[in-house]
Design goal:
508 residues, Rossmann fold, 18 helices, binds adenosine-5'-triphosphate
Length: 508
């Protein structure tokens, strides 16, 4: 039988790195195939080549037995290849069905044939058992369902080879189960799926084979029956990885963050997105906020960091009312912030790693001297230290941040925010897209800082992370705190229920 995809000897060089080094990759019809490896290993690059987004410098690509050469994704889409990116590319004010046809509208005269798009969308929804309606507007859908729309869009175009780049990063456990059922059914129909993920438990659950990349090379491909999580981790990182966080019981001291009756309104809809929220975080403890994205976490975090105005309530940092203070003042007083969107708020893509390593503190000592002259040597040596300690790759300090792989960009931000020795850290999705070796390291650093008295507010959609790192866990649903659990009491099931808006008593 012909293979769905046969990539032979694929190489791709960027200015500073060989992202793909003579890579062979084969995908069979009917299988779900994981592509795993450390940050910067070359996974996204290989899949962008398969999807026609990037041209290889060398190598051959065959789809269903026929050699091809893509000039753009259009060529790949014609052959039934679809890619779901981690960042969704939907148009929010439009409906599900309208989003389906963007770029491939069924025309009726010159106007969009909405009726046809709608009925075809409805058919697909039914066929694949999705839980959405063609007429719903994207902005009214939770993130998990928006992902279904992304998948629907590829199905609409007749996808047979589906590439998913870290698809479960934003889903609840329940939504992940739904996604996995879809993937299995889709593959069982004779299609093929590539699944990129850093979550090895999911990879073991859903994939038939796993291909592991390291430093641009293909290390090997294994069958699920012949491997386990530990071995996969080892193949990826080249050493043993501890999959659990080791930490002592917290010894909380004085209150560092106090949120009192905080309200943030939706800018357009006149309804609260943060709805009378109150809680405290003490020095020496990690308080986790679990919740499906879009339930007020973003607004809550931005409000505490000073990037968004509160519409009611008070924020105290170390006992002082800072509700009306700027982000800069809060930062000077010892607040660090790892933002959820690494490019929108975390890094400046067109700046070097050096400048990004001091971003937010560049205007003051020790990085600025006199009338705002930068001490380039100080900045450079600080950047070097961060890059080395956090193993950011490539390690040159003159790399532009925009060319980092997802996980390496994240590592630089975490390094900058933690190593300025704050009193309070607000960490939103601190390890999203980071490989397990680096997660282990970042978690250790956060726990170490906690033990030295740091107050940590951790916001994460990754339940494993919330459960293993937090001393206490709050669950946010539609802007309100649904409940609080201690680390010992928290289970994925209990949290999942709270995250979906049920009370624990209803579930019992
Ligand atoms: N457009 C680009 N310009 C320069 N370098 C790039 C570009 N895209 C990727 N790279 C580099 O190529 C290497 C591989 O990146 P790639 O995005 O494929 O990694 P990845 O395996 O997907 O990592 P992650 O798990 O962090 O997403 C990295 O070192 C990255 O910095
Ligand atoms: Mg990637």
């Amino acid at each position: 039988m012909t293979k769905a995809v046969d990539m032979q000897n694929i190489s791709k060089r960027f200015p500073l790195v060989l992202a793909n080094d003579r890579v062979n990759f084969e995908l069979n019809w009917g299988e779900v195939h994981a592509l795993i490896g450390e940050n910067g290993a070359g996974k996204s690059t290989l899949m962008k080549i398969l999807y026609g987004l990037q041209a290889p410098d060398e190598g051959k690509l065959a789809i269903d037995g026929a050699e091809v050469s893509f000039r753009s994704p259009k060529d790949a889409i014609k052959l039934g290849i679809g890619m779901v990116h981690q960042h969704f590319m939907l148009v929010e004010p439009l409906s599900v069905a309208e989003n389906m046809v963007l770029g491939s509208e069924p025309m009726k005269g010159v106007a969009l044939d909405y009726g046809k798009a709608r009925s075809r969308t409805a058919e697909l929804i039914k066929q694949f058992g999705f839980d959405i309606s063609p007429d719903t507007k994207i902005e009214d859908l939770p993130v998990g369902l928006q992902q279904q729309v992304e998948i629907l869009k590829t199905l609409y175009r007749g996808v047979k080879i589906l590439i998913m780049d870290e698809p479960t990063a934003v889903l609840t456990p329940q939504e992940t189960r739904g996604l996995f059922k879809f993937i299995r059914d889709f593959a069982a129909k004779g299609n093929a799926v590539v699944f990129i993920s850093h979550k090895l438990d999911e990879v073991m659950e859903i994939c038939d084979r796993m291909s592991v990349m390291r430093d641009g090379q293909m290390i090997g491909t294994v069958n699920r029956e012949d491997t386990n999580q530990r071995q996969l981790a080892n193949m990826m990182v080249g050493r043993e990885v501890i999959l659990r966080v080791d930490k002592e019981l917290a010894q909380p001291k004085g209150v560092q963050i106090k949120i009192d009756d905080l309200v943030v309104m939706h800018p357009a809809k006149q309804k609260p997105v943060v709805n009378h929220v109150s809680f405290e975080v003490r020095a020496g403890e990690i308080v986790g906020i679990a919740g499906i994205e879009g339930n007020g976490q973003t607004e809550l975090v931005e409000c505490i960091a000073g990037l968004r105005k509160a519409d009611g309530g008070t924020i105290y940092l170390e006992g002082r009312d800072v509700t009306k203070e700027s982000a800069r003042v809060r930062r000077e007083e010892g607040l660090s912030h790892i933002p959820e969107d690494r490019y929108e708020r975390g890094l400046v893509e067109t700046f070097t790693a050096s400048m990004n390593a001091v971003l937010g503190d560049q205007y003051r000592a020790p990085y600025a001297v006199g009338l705002g002259f930068l001490d380039e040597q100080k900045i450079e040596s600080h950047a070097k230290a961060l890059i080395k300690d956090y193993d950011v790759r490539p390690s040159a300090t003159n790399v532009l941040a925009g060319s980092y792989s997802g996980g390496n960009a994240q590592k630089l931000i975490v390094a900058r925010e933690l190593e300025r020795k704050p009193d309070v850290l607000i960490a939103a999705q601190p390890t999203r897209g980071v490989d397990i070796g680096a997660i282990e390291f970042i978690h250790k650093q956060i726990v170490k800082a906690r033990d030295m008295g740091l107050a940590v507010l951790l916001v994460s959609a990754d339940l494993n992370e919330v459960m293993s790192l937090s001393d206490r866990i709050l669950v946010l649903f539609e802007g309100q705190i649904m409940g609080e659990l201690s680390q010992e009491a928290a289970t994925a099931e209990k949290l999942g229920l709270l995250m979906a808006g049920s009370k624990l008593s209803e579930a019992a």
